[in-house]
Structure formats: C-alpha cells, structure tokens
Hints:
Layout: H1 3-24, H2 29-47, H3 59-75, H4 82-106, H5 123-128, H6 132-157, H7 185-205, H8 209-227, H9 232-249, H10 254-268, H11 270-281, H12 285-303, H13 313-316, H14 337-368, H15 374-393, H16 403-428
Helix pairs in contact: 1-2, 1-6, 2-4, 3-14, 4-16, 6-7, 6-8, 7-8, 7-9, 7-15, 9-15, 12-14, 14-15, 14-16, 15-16
Amino acid sequence: MSLKAWADKLDHYVYYLLLFTVAVIPLNQAFTAGCVAVTFICALLASFGTKRRENVLHPWQQALLYLLFAIGWISLHFSADKFLSSFNFVYVGGQYAALIFVLLRYGWQKPQPFAQAALPQNLWQRFSSLPRPVQLIAAFLTVSVLVSSIGLAQKLLGVTAEGIWVDPQEFPELKIRVYSTLVNPNILAGYLVLVIAYGAALFSVFKAKRVRLALVITSLLAAGCLLYTYSRGNWLACAAVLFTFCLLFYHKAFLPVLGVGALGFAVGGHAVWHRLGSILNGQDTSMALRMAYLRSTKWIIEEYPLGVGWYGYRFVYPTYNYYLADTSVIMYHCHNLFLNVLAELGWHGLIVFLAVWGMFLYHGWKLAFNKKGAWTTALGRGYVLASVGIAIGGLTDHVYFNTQMGLLFWLLGILTMLSYKLDKYEVNR
C-alpha cells in the first residue's frame, strides 16, 4: 500500500476518533487526554499524505487564536514555578490546541446536494447524514444522559459528599452533593448548564416530535441532576440561560419553565431554599472564602499587571492569603473566570481571551437569528445560551480551570465557527 493510500484510509477514520473523543470528554479526564492525543497524532499523520484542506478561519481569526496561545506561553516566564507551569501548559494547552486542530480539519464538510445522497435507511445512516457539527453536538448531548443519570443515582443511593463541598454548620440538612463522572459538584453543574443551553436551543428549532421528546428528556435529566449539585452560582447561571432562551428565542416556554422551576423548588425542599437564601446572607464558609479570594486576587492583579503566569495562581496565592489558617491548602484558581484569566495572563491576556470569545459569540449570534438553515440556527442559539451560562457561572467560580470543561469551551466555540462556515456554503449553493 502506497503512502497516499495509507494516509487516505487513516484520514477516513480520524473523524470517528474525533466523534468518540467528544463523547468521552465528561466521563474521565485521563482517558480523554489519551483520546485527544491519539486523535491528533492520527490526524497529523494523515495530513502528510492527503491534500490540503480549505481553511475554515480567516487569517485574522487564526491570528487571534495564535496570539492567545502565545500569551499563555510567554506568561510562563512570570510564574513562580516555571517547571510546573510549563508542564501544565504543555499538558492542558496542548490538548486544547490538538482538539482545535482536529476540529478545524475534520469537524466540518462541504454540504452535498440532497439529490445525490441516498435516503437514510436506519438510525446510523440518519445520524451520518447530519452535518458534522450537529453529529458532534448530538454526541455531547447523548453522553450527558449517562452523566446526569449517574448523578441522580448518587442522590438515590446516598453518596456522601466530601466535607470540603459543604458547610455542615450552616447547612446541617445538606448531606449529599452529586458530582457524577466529574471532579466535584460545581464542575458537574457547569457542565449541565451547557447541556440545558443546547437542549433548549435545539428544541426551539427542530419540530420532529421524537427529536423534541429526546431533547426534553435530556434537559429534564440535566436539570434534575443540576438541582442536586446544590451549586448556587450555576443555579443562577441556568436561570439566566432559560430566561434568555424564553426572551429571545421561544416566548411560549416562559410558563413551562416557571412550572419546572417551581417543581424543582418543591422537590428540593428546605435545602434548596436554604442554599438560595445563603447567597444574600453570606454567612457560610463558601461565600466567605470566595470574598477572600476576590480580595486576594485584587491585590495580586495590582502588583502583577502582566500576570503571574499560566497555572501560576496557586504559587503566588499563599503570599496574599489572609483568610485560611491552614497554609497547606492549595488554591489552584480564583473563583472567578475573568479575574483568574486577568491574574494569570495579565490585562493583555484578558483582552485577547475576551476577543476570542467575542469572535465565537458574534458568529453564534449571527446564526441564532438566521432563518435559512434550521441546524445552523439551533447551534447558534445554543452557543449564545451557553455563553450566558459561562459568563454568569464564571462570576462565582472558574470551572473551566478543569481540563474537561476547558475542552468543552473550545469545542463549542470552534463548532460555532464551523457552523457559520457551512451556513455560508449553503447560502452560496
């Protein structure tokens, strides 16, 4: 077999590796890292023997991504522990870059005239006939059913939360916070907000009854699991997502959403009301700790305007720790997405990060109100709603410090760009 034939055959299977990788992201962090590595290596090998793919991004868009990664690399110079920061940058940043590379190469395809394609006969053929961004989102939502079910099973079986996740003095009735396959309840909650955002978005566009029923079940399972994470910040994020959904995309959902919310409060009982009330009184250790983080981070930013380096927050925080008596406790990040980026990458890093996110959001917004293609509209609305959830949730926690969540951030952003590209092909055709 010639090199070209071998590369063509490998090229054919890389997308299926990508599909599998996307599906397993929320299941296991180490396994996901291995899948990303294998998929990237296969894509890289296949690229040497196949023709050059058309660029999805404009040069200025590529430049923004390169600039952000360059800022992350340069910031290593400012870290108090250059070795660990460099290792984390290669391990985590490398996964982000690898996933973006594979997505841009294999996450899209030019649409073919429908008349040239055979009518789908079975479920797999129907799935395969969908545009690749939709397939990848479908994999993301399908696996969420498993993740949500595991979380609900933890609640039913009485899985006990670790002490660091609750304040037993402030919340004596709160014994269980589910975390499913993710690291802790807050990270799980951030993930579920994304699931609900895309579930709602797809529901507002697709009219097939079976599809809608599947989306309702997926979203309700995610909402039920989110309730038992007892993550206050992500409850507010989910509320903001659903309010935006009703306001911008589906007015008829206001009453059903309010009904489901009331049912959740009723099912959750006193524990839910107590958690919500604690947002205002700020008496529990979690709220006090977050305020201490913010004060410490403010001082860090003032003294290090260029940042403390990628993964450098944990090394500088002890110097500005005026709250925790136990100095052995490691604080990996500030519980605020925006302040954490600012503290580690500096003002210039935050500006570029927001520019990249703004680029994704701009294209998502354009697609969200596009009436020409149902699936592109759905994915655009999904990203707009997901961005609302990320922004609101990011004010009280930084769940995207977690590699699995970070991969999802880049996955959803790049898929939005791919959808916009394919939408242009549809219009021009």
